[in-house]
Design brief:
The protein has 1 helix and 30 strands. By secondary structure, the chain is mainly beta. The strands form 8 sheets. It has an 8-stranded antiparallel β-sheet with strand order 10-9-12-13-30-29-26-27, with no helix packed on it. A hairpin with a 2-residue loop joins strand 29 and strand 30. The chain is rod-shaped.
Length: 402
Amino acid sequence: METNAAFKGRLIVNYETGALNISSLREEDSGEYVFERFRLSGPLRPKTIQLHIYERIVSVQVTSQVNNSTDGSSCNVTLSCSVIGGSQVALSWSRNGENIAGAENRATLTVSPTRAEEDYTCTAINPISSLSNTVTAGPCQTVLQVSGVHGTSLVLNGAVGESIVLPTDEEGPIRGPGLMEWLKNKVTVIKLVSKQDSSPFETRKTNAAFKGRLIVNNETGALNISSLREEDSGEYVFEGIGSSTSLRPKTIQLHIYERIVSVQVTSQVNNNADGTSCNATLSCSVIGGSQVVLSWSRNGENIAGAENRTTLSVSPTRAEEDHTCTAINPVGSQSNTTRPCQTGLDSHGLSLCELKSVLFSLGLVAMVSAVIAVNVRERCCRDQWGLRKEDESVRVMEKIPT
């Protein structure tokens, strides 16, 4: 039997059907495969298969760069989608589950969300796999992220590196002469003073920890803090005196968290021989984020008891089951979906497992046919050789004198 060197150690032929099993597939294995076999009565109908081999997508990552407006009511966002693994990958984007027209195969996307809760998803797909990643709670979360209101006290959440506005209850404009002051944990953050009715408020004192990161709205006293740090968390109090009366005090509890960058799901899979089910160990890893909580879902339904587990063992009952790991914290969430038992499709809709079975069967038939042909040929040769020997014996006997 002759074997192409490029397939050495990777072929098994089914002797009953001729099907060819190719293991450890490579992209260069793509091409047109033809199976031929012969009987004594003549050749049988050949089988032609177009085989396409692709690299499976490993993960999809979505990152965002957010530029908030000063008042925190709107923003422009640049989203970037990167794909690990995969060949001949096509990209698409969706907003709140609806496809974004004209965004096909774009690795970056600039958007101007109309509300804070818009979800953006990048999906990568090729003929044998697809994965997606969603920026669930943003990325255009407004700089005012209110998680609680208690009388004159607010609880706000902010993200590291971004901006946030601490509001006051003043409608403005605040007129001098007067004084405005923001304190954090009873320590002055910034103090402004106006000496006359028409004169603007001027900064008199700034805490060194906030140098270059503060802007105060002279009409309302609202404080914009940029380039947020986790150590900016604390209790902030606004107080002051205007031209005619004391300003209404305002207390804000500020919590700063690191935003989740991406979620990756990897799988270690053992497929059943027929490709209809498998045993898989899924691993979920999170890049970035602080105080992150994990959850798992199967085909969109939450898996009870899987909270905060970085690994999950599953035994899907069918090949089409999707498993999603979601990471969430107070300033955002992201998810990643994998289909551990997904099989590849050839151009005619055959699964990779089915294609292997067909090739294996065809290869086996070819081998059996070849063996039979060799045996028949040897038998024919032996029969012909026997006849020649018999003829020679007869001729010899005829020459012997009687």
